Amino acid sequence: MLFTRPEFLFLFLPVVLTIYYILNHKYRNVFLLFSSIVFYTRGEGLLVLLMLAVTAICYYSGLLMEKGRKKLGFRLALFSSLGALFVFKYFYFVKGMLLTVVEIPTSDISIFDGLSEIVLPLGISFYVFQNLSYILDLKFGNTKASRNFVNYSTYITMFSQLVAGPIVRYVDIQKQLLFRSFNPDQFLNGVKRFVIGLAKKIIIANNCAFIADNIFILPIEDIDMVVGWVGIIAYTLQIYFDFSGYSDMAIGLGKMFGFDFLENFNYPFISKSIREFWRRWHISLSTWFKDYLYIPIGGSRQNGFLTYRNLFIVFVVTGLWHGASMNFLIWGLLHGLLIVNERLWFGEVLKRVWAPIAHLYLIFFVLITFVFFRLEELPNALNYFKHLFQSYEVTDYSYLYYLLSYERMGALILGILFSLPVVRLFYSIRLNYLGLYKVAKVSWLLLLFIISVFYIAGNSYNPFIYFKF
Predict the structure, then answer these.
(1) Which of the following is catalytic: 25, 282, 322, 387?
(2) Does 317 lie in the same domain as 223?
(3) pLDDT exceeds cutoff 80 at 392
(4) Among this protein's residues, is 387 annotated catalytic?
(5) Who has the most CB within 10 Å: 212, 218, 291, 360?
């Protein structure tokens, strides 16, 4: 079930919210857990059992660790979580690599029998990482084991951020899991945040997706510099507004149910370096890898070589977290290389140059590295990359004119505009003395919601990128 589907907006969510606040607070987690299971089952069917099994194993592993059997509990949780992730997400990738190296036909290996139809469960990377953050915090002494299975399962399965994040840590909401009271201001802020996220997804991301998807399916000979750059700019805006819009909706839903989730994006395209970009982009993932991988393997406490090695390890894993293909690995390695280069010397250059130049540097490299993120086959990515910098005899732009209709061109412009902190400027302009501020704010949100509903009612193009991660 998608947040952008009518059955969610006008049936599931209103019914769940109504029952949730009618119930005594003692039963709200039970009902939220039940609702989340219904939500996930609606889209994934019996794969809900995988999520519940991993959750149950990690919960009981935490109890084992609390009772002094730390190694057994930790290994059990690690094996079950990473084992599920490997089988369902990385099996084919590793199989392909092995068979390429040893050159053995798949049909000659009986272990591959019956494994040709493995389906990637929605949100598996997110709920596995939430389980792992809990277990690792127990190991590092940052929290105590949960003794309430319903509360823990509610934390893992909460439908607001289950299928595409942000990655929520148990330590950040463990007190909220015990008690939440109705706060009208928090609820209204949640509605506002949800509507903004919905509009970002429906109005901007989906229109940019239509442009990007229709360019990336073109034969490579039909792509020249102009078409290529339009495609990658549209895709970059799509992925940002798709994912940040989803994060806004998740944070907004959390507030409606009394939870405060941490921010996941902070205007990453205003950055002036790749290092700054990763402090602003997918913050929950960046901090997860920093706290649970980079720092434990040594971080920057060691000599230069080992620090750079640690950075490369983190970005290799970051690339593979997004997808099991060579291109995601290359995307991660390129970002790791850029960050190492900035730490070595180029970061000091960026501090001294004119700020717009540093900003253009960031935008340029984010755009070109997203080619490898978008095209999972390496030859296709290399061909597209080459066409970004070479002029070809493509003189018929009628297809591009069709893609760049007034509506979709407007979405591109809005995407560029709202990737900057212009909303903060709007809210900083206080019109209270004219009695217009609250009216303007409510009217703006209402207009965004109405436009989004019109798009939804028209069955507009509506892909979700991060569902496949």
Answers:
(1) 322
(2) yes
(3) no
(4) no
(5) 212
Amino acid 428: pLDDT: 61
193 assigned to some structural domain: yes
Total domains in the fold of the chain: 2
pLDDT per position as a tens digit, 295-342: 999 988 877 889 999 999 999 999 999 888 889 999 999 999 999 999
Of the candidates 139, 190, 208, which has an alpha carbon nearest to the alpha carbon of residue 415? 208
Residue 244: domain span: 186-409
- Identify the band that residue 68 occupies on the pLDDT scale cut at 50, 70 and 90: confident
Q: Which of 181, 205, 235 is the last residue of a domain?
A: 181
Same domain, 213 and 129: no
pTM of the model: 0.91
